[in-house]
Amino acid sequence: PNPAPEWLVESSWLDISDMSKLKTFKGFDQDFANNADAWREYFDSSSCFKDKLHGQWDGKLETFQKLLVLRCLRQDKILEGIMAFVTHEMDQKFIEPPPFNLPLAFQDSTATVPLIFVLSSGADPTMAWISFAEEQGFSERLDSISLGQGQGPIAERKLEQASKSGMWLLLQNCHLAVSWMPRMEALVEGFDPAALHPDFRLWLTAMPSPQFPVAVLQNAVKMTLEPPKGLKANVNGSFSLFSDEQFEECKQVEAYKRLCFSLCWFHAVMQERRKFGPLGWNIAYDYSESDRDCCLKQLKVFLDKYDEVPYKVIVQLSGDVNYGGRITDDWDRRTMNTLLAEYVCPEAMSDGYMFSADENYKQPTMGSHKDYLAAVQKWPIQPHPEAFGLHENADITCAQNEVKALFEKVLSLQPRVSAGGGLSREDIIERTAEAIHDKVPAPWQMLDVQKNYPVKYEESQNTVLQQECLRYNKLLIVMKKTLVDVRMALKGLVVMSSELDALATSLYNNQVPAMWEGKAYPSLKPLVTWQEDLLKRTAFVQDWVDNGMPTTFWISGFFFPQAFLTGTLQNYARKLQIGIDTVSLDFRNCKLEAHEIKEKPEAGVIVWGFFLEGARWDIEKNSLIESKPKELFTSYVPIWLAPVVDRPKPDPKVVLMCPAYKVLTRKGTLSTTGHSTNFVMTIEVPTDKPPGHWIKRGVAIFLALSY
After folding, report:
1. Residue 171's Cα: distance from chain center in Å?
2. Lowest-confidence segment of 88-97, 121-130, 164-173, 549-558 by average pLDDT
């Protein structure tokens, strides 16, 4: 069992237990359990990636092996650990990205070697390319075309002309012309040095895309240009576009300066919140400089037109129209409007107005354009999450997301053959498949379920149970069949199809196979914990089948929880013989744990299995409070969902309308039933702070975590 549950999460202890099975780490778990307090110092340290390990392990383990310990305890510090490892083993220069240098890249190219700009969102190298061409005396011999539908033949003609006359040709956005890529590959591979003009150069721009021809990519000179990162660089870049002359042109000079600064700050926050993943925005939108410029132009128009500052108009146009035009998620729209209302308001017109709880970021003292830029230069390079309205734990979430993406990349690049001693790849797949096959329960006999729980007018939950069994059966049948097939394919008894090969690779990499995901519920867990979770879910349904309806419901165990919630409303409406559209759920938080509740409520249901991100729940205060450091997720109390007829709306000043999702990604797609594949419902959570505080924190409730 976990020796320190108060600070060590369960997934870390499982990792330590697995690591201790390796020869070098034998006894590590026992030593850790005996010296948990000493290891806590390592866990709490902000520089743990370079700190010494406790006891014998610092001298016993090599640098790379120490990274494994770091991965178990502080996954968020792995990137810094890897950088320190590369610096120690190789050199500092291998971790520092080289500056964007067009002349240097150009020297490596020839007429037959194209140059590729690998794009990242928010960066456009076109202007840098044009100014470099002018330096080289090629401003008259330039041509460019943006690829897309129907542009292929035109690009081909331009390519032929440019190669003969010695021009530079830029083909933009190659990733948008997937169908023309094979033709481009043939043209580039067919370049004949004797037939090409020596001055000719082919330049390409593309986002990272699996459809981009590998042969072209391997032979080309590759460059990447990153947009400015961080609030300081972003606001500095935006505000430096102005001048004192431009400010003086406006009728309301002071208001124009202050609100320009506020909108530049708003633009930076909108862009930089993306790095926090779903905690920042449910969907990562590509806000561009044109959104910001549009807001600033409209601001000048309205300030010239009116004598007063029309805050409402500016907020409406900037938020719901300019930036809101990109937003497709209602919860993101709420976050954006909450942020904008704090940045564009009468209070923001005074010196020293705090844009966030971080004291660095405030409205500068009224002065010249240079004074404003000087104030921005005093800001820290790395902003604290509080600058965005987020909790300090958001940095850990951000780092963990980066590490997860890195590990997935490394896994996908693994060689497919095993070398040296130990079990071969096939042996590991065979063992894993056998272990899972033996644990997976048999599908339910639907005739028996239908007999014991028939479809009844007074009990809608019988229908819900039947549907749950049917959904789980589809998954269990596919799992049983494919696990038998893959073991036979490994022995050569059946053909190893591409689907079975992908399944085998997933089993080897501890990932949930795509064949199962297609039939399963949304989940972000790795294969081992996913399988344990599936067994718990099927046990929950089996208990219902064997012993009748439970006292409390583990809402995470439902394949389709929305049906269960509708069934609860339907039962109440049918009991009172009233329309279901007049009934809604009242959320009443319980003070007891789920296992302590012994009696069913008269009406409605008690559900549990919720997790909070961005805050934690205080039973005594009956309110949301701030998270503890390094505590990313906390359990939420069981909720009595009580149906009420014609229920009045809650007071928006003391209740947070909190979205509940199935998994941590927070985004889903609309299914054919009209329900989201991820969003479950809106839960009303009491709070003694203004709800806007928690909206900026990105507070949400989840039915399942990723470990």
Report:
1. 31
2. 121-130
> Is it the case that residue 331 has pLDDT exceeding 70?
yes
Q: Report CA-CA distances (Å) from 308 to 18, 248, 251, 300, 312.
A: 66, 17, 11, 13, 11
Name the nearest CA neighbour of 702 among 633, 605, 631: 633
pLDDT in the model for residue 658: 94
Give which of 701, 702, 692 is closest to 389, Cα–Cα.
Answer: 692
Residue 699 buriedness (CB in 10 A; 0-12 / 13-18 / 19+): buried
Please tell me which residue, 697 or 401, carries the higher pLDDT value.
697
All residues at 6 or more sequence positions from 283 whose CB lies less than 8 Å from its CB, including other chains: 327, 328, 329, 332, 667
CB-based contact 594:686 (threshold 8 Å)? no
602-614: pLDDT as tens digits: 889 999 999 999 9
When pLDDT is averaged across residues 134-141 and rounded to a whole number, the result is: 86
Q: What mean pLDDT do residues 386-407 have?
A: 88
- The model carries a pTM of 0.80
Kindly write down the DSSP assignment for every residue of 60-123, as one continuous string.
HS-HHHHHHHHHHH-GGGHHHHHHHHHHHHT-GGGTSPPP--HHHHHHT--TTS-EEEE--TT-
Helix residue ranges, H only, 381-460: 394-412, 425-439, 446-452
The span from the CA of 558 to the CA of 549, in Å, is 14
DSSP labels for 130-159?
HHHHHHTT-TTSEEEEE--TT-HHHHHHHH
Structure confidence by residue, pLDDT tens digits, 455-474: 988 899 999 999 999 999 99
Tens of pLDDT, residue by residue over 523-537, are 989 898 899 999 999
The token pair that represents 463 in the structure block = 């229908």
Q: Give, as one character, the DSSP assignment of residue 306.
A: -
The two structure tokens encoding residue 458: 């007074």
Residues 632 and 397 sit within 8 Å (Cβ to Cβ):
yes
Q: Locate tokens 């048999």: which residue? A: 442
**657: which strand partners?**
684
CB 467 within 8 A of CB 521: no
Beta-strand relationship, 611-613 and 700-702: antiparallel
> Whole-angstrom Cα distance, residue 244 to residue 261?
13
Look up tokens 């083909």; give the residue: 171
Distance separating alpha carbons of residues 488 and 308, to the nearest angstrom: 78
